[in-house]
Amino acid sequence: MQLSEFTVRKAKPKGKPYRMSDGGGLHLLVQPTGSKLWQLRYRYAGKENILSLGPYPLITIAEARQKRHDAKKLLLNGIDPNSKKKQDRVDALAKQGETFGKLSDEYLERQQQKGTASSTITKTTWLLKKLAEPLADRPIQEITAAEVLALLQRIEQSGRRETARRLRGTISSVFKLAIVTLRAKEDPTVPLHGALLPPKVVGRAAITDEKELGTLLQAIDDYDGWPTIRAGLQFLVLTCVRPGEVRGAKRAEFDLKKAVWSIPAERMKMRQGHYVPLSTQALAILEDIWPMSEGAELVFPSVRSQHRPLSENAFNSALRRMGYRKNEVTAHGFRVTASSIMNARGKDPDVIEAVLAHQDRNAIRRTYNRATYWEQRVVLMQEWANLLDDLKHG
User: How do the domains of the chain map onto residue ranges?
Assistant: First the structure.
């Protein structure tokens, strides 16, 4: 016979615990203290077990019966209700601790262990800790695609389309870590492909006219600022590398007798070591600037300290002092200048790409190119240096 609400509410405590049956294994345990607890008696794997369903009146008769129904469905599927309850409790506790912020910290730590460039880690930290801060305390499994999209659209609407695109990719990387470590089932950024407006592509400002380049080279030679900045700009134009690779250049990377600069993989954008043939003009600049960093590690040290590199904006600031606006020329644009002029003069495009350390998508071809084009690169870099001299002197 099923229990009624009146019977359960009026049940009085006795000297010993006693049970009031509702049928199907469900009963109400009444304690001498007056507390009442719903329990389900069932058999699993040939053994009798008791499942606690919660106290009355917090759990009503209707709710206790629904819990009995749910437990019996588990038994039909060969699942022990008590084991399922314990696992749910473990999952809930784990879920509370597995927040997006915690996974972000793990992701950043793994990037450091992998040897990711410090500049990349700094940018990624800014994306995750600053821009993705609204997600930090959210359980990783509860974050939805709509929630991420709202965050990205706020950034997009502020005009930072490229930043929004990068943030989506970085959030996705955190979720991929959560998935492979079994702490999330899906990546909510996947449905968002194509949801953001494409970035407005702005090319690197660069001079591609040979006569104008000659004028710029004269201005660099006449620059009266810090000597390492002038030498760094001259060396940057001659070697066709990225500004950061010149600013961080170390004396130990150079073999002046063999005229080779070996840039280690950790300092390259594509994480691949790069060898730069040094023209006679590049060697002359090094010979001139070398004594200034005697006893230090860096070739082009900062104005303030021999142990610190030039600031990220040092080269561009010098160009502005020379009278060049940022929409006319940038330090990074020297690579565009070299590529444009050498291609216009009919130089081998594959050799030019090898000079610029552009990563070939094909791993076998990439290895082949690095081995095959060395002699051609030595010749091309000397021809480029000679051309710069010609342009500079009119």
Answer: 5-95, 100-192, 210-392
Segment 125-152 mean pLDDT: 91
Strand order from edge to edge, sheet including 18-23:
18-23, 26-30, 36-44, 47-56
pLDDT digits (tens, 9 = 90+) for 94-132: 566 688 999 999 999 999 998 887 778 888 999 999 999
Is a pLDDT exceeding 90 seen at residue 197? no
Active site residue 27: no
The reply to whether 332 belongs to the active site is yes
Q: Is 269 a catalytic residue?
A: yes
Count each helix (H run) and each strand (E run) in the chain, helices first: 16, 7
Is 242 part of the annotated catalytic residue set?
Answer: yes
Instruction: Reply yes or no on whether 114 is catalytic.
Output: no
Is 393 known to be catalytic? no
Among the listed residues 242, 247, 267, 274, the single catalytic one is 242
Q: Is the pLDDT of residue 337 over 60?
A: yes
**The CATH number of domain 5-95, selected from 3.30.160.390, 2.30.110.10, 2.60.120.460, 3.30.300.30:** 3.30.160.390
